[in-house]
User: What shape does this take?
Amino acid sequence: MGGQLFLVFRGTKQKRKGESFMEALNNFIGMLNGPIWGVGMLVLIVGSGLYFTIRLGFFQFAHFGDMWKRILDKGDSESGISTFASFCTTMAMRVGTGGVAVAIYAGGPGAIFWMILAGMTNSAVCFVECVLSSLYKTKIDGEYRGGGPYCAERGLGWKPYGIFLAFVSFIGIGCFMPAAATNTIADGFQKSLGIPMIATAVVIAAIMAVVVIGGVKRIGTVASYIVPPMVIIYLVAAVVVLIVNITEVPNMISLVIQSAFGPKSLIGGGIGIAIRQGVKRGTFSSASGMGESMPPAAAAETSHPVKQGMANAAGVWLDTVIVCTASGLMILLTDAYNTEFGYASQRFAEQLAGEEGGVFYVQMAASTVMGSIAPTFIAIMLALFSFTCLISYYYEAETAMIYVFEGEGKEGIRKTATWILRIAMIVLICYYGVAAPDLAWGLADLALGSITWINMVVVLALSPKAFALYKDYREQMKAGKDPYYNPDKLSWKGVDTAMWKQINAKRIAEDK
Assistant: This one.
């Protein structure tokens, strides 16, 4: 959301027809987002992350190397994609700055500290939900499918709750989440090259159509080709900015710490606001708890659910802890930011006047090294980040929709519904390309927050299953084995045992 570059230009507000209605709509969405993203969300996500981290023995640190190795696990089939393709599909929706510029504007430099901390604990949340999604996946129309709704029904026997979660996910992810990503791409090219937003939106919609028609395998392939190079290029640019401003690093670190805990937190509105913004954007970036990574995790061909959980947990580190930090460093080191509570950039006072967090912060930061080419470079990176989010959103929405129409004899209904979804998302992309930025960001926040509350009920209720699988995984690792899941030794009601026995048939036969 997650993630996502999603650096919305909140400061530039164009006069449009129906402005009073749009203002009322934005206020209504803001009213809904208030309690959704209040203290309760902080307790839910941070509390769950800490609880899972402790119960799993700080796995994200104890098995840090193992997390990254699992990304490269081989194996795909006609039914599933490789772990690497699944990882890239998940990273497609996460990678970017995760709204780090918005976090700095609204929460001050200290929000970066809390965003990093949230990323570390959120990796445990992502691990648990992906392990569960892999465990309770099943085959539908020859492909692996899984996610929050599937876990609710198969793991807890909550069919009505699963349908409710599927509908909320379908609407939120398919209809609302694409708003910020599309608007950000269109606005980025308008700012840098003067391309009309509607023209960019139409091009995005056309490319989107070509990709999603190919199904999960094409989505995974496209993500595998785009995600690795775009992350490397973006990080190289960040490192260059860091090296050029290396003498300012000690002061920058001091500013972040003081803004997170000390008197300088007031430039972001206070410690409480810094924590809230850091956790909010860290959650948006990683989408941990929302279940965004659950469908791609279920789609992977893996021998043990924990392997997929490890790979996806590494993805949270890469996005929120590494990429978001790189973006924050660029912005803070070059003084390319303002804050809502009074701080104004000294270096870019004229350029950033009126800017309330957005891609322009990163463009200004990059311009200190790259010069006039920076806005175009950032716009291109922005387009890649956000487009990969869109294709991942489609797959999540499709998986939720297919769950609603699951069952024999409904193949035709699923096929028709899939085409309706594809057409609807293409139309929405064209609209969101010219929608008001505040509306786009507000809708995305509303979708993420609502689904997170509903999905986390399932994740928390089923978390003991993930703990048991992690114990099984560790025992096999200590015995020098390549871990695999045997449902005859460890299983629960709702697990597709026949499917898992087929996946690991050779290994099960060898151990008999």
